[in-house]
């Protein structure tokens, strides 16, 4: 809604107001450069980084809601596919995810997660 997001080499994401042309917020969470951004449904933003992670941000709260960890390859592109799905490419592969459908377990597996449960944060 009248905003622009830009990724930075230092791992930050800046959110800009198109009306005022001023920065509204700076989001921190990636360890390396942010290479890809995609606007998602329900006021969310996905960011992909050279650190091999994809983060899902809530734009109302300006906070990270989830982190998707891949195989470590830099994330090079992201695209919103609709129906809660996110597509993207890393250096050596491509894929599609439901960004808010799984969470890591301590066993190295994943478990179902419902985005309506606010306790899941980065």
TrEMBL record:
Keyword terms, alphabetized: Repeat, WD repeat
Keyword Nucleotide-binding: no
Biased composition (Low complexity): 87-96
Gene3D superfamilies in the record: YVTN repeat-like/Quinoprotein amine dehydrogenase
Alphabetical list of Pfam families matching this protein: WD40
Repeat positions for WD: 1-26, 27-67
Residues covered by region (Disordered): 87-122
Matches recorded under InterPro entries: WD40/YVTN_repeat-like_dom_sf, WD40_repeat_dom_sf, WD40_rpt
Family annotation (PANTHER family): F-BOX AND WD REPEAT DOMAIN CONTAINING 7, WD40 REPEAT PROTEIN
Protein known as: Uncharacterized protein
């Amino acid at each position: 809604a009248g905003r622009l997001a830009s990724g930075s080499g230092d791992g930050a994401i800046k959110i800009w107001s198109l009306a005022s042309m001023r920065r509204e917020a700076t989001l921190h969470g990636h360890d390396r450069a942010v290479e890809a951004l995609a606007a998602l449904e329900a006021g969310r933003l996905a960011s992909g980084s050279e650190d091999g992670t994809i983060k899902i941000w809530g734009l109302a709260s300006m906070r990270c809601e989830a982190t998707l960890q891949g195989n470590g390859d830099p994330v090079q592109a992201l695209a919103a596919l609709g129906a809660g799905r996110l597509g993207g490419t890393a250096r050596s592969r491509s894929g599609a995810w439901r960004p808010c459908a799984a969470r890591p377990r301590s066993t190295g597996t994943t478990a179902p997660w419902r985005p309506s449960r606010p306790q899941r944060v980065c």
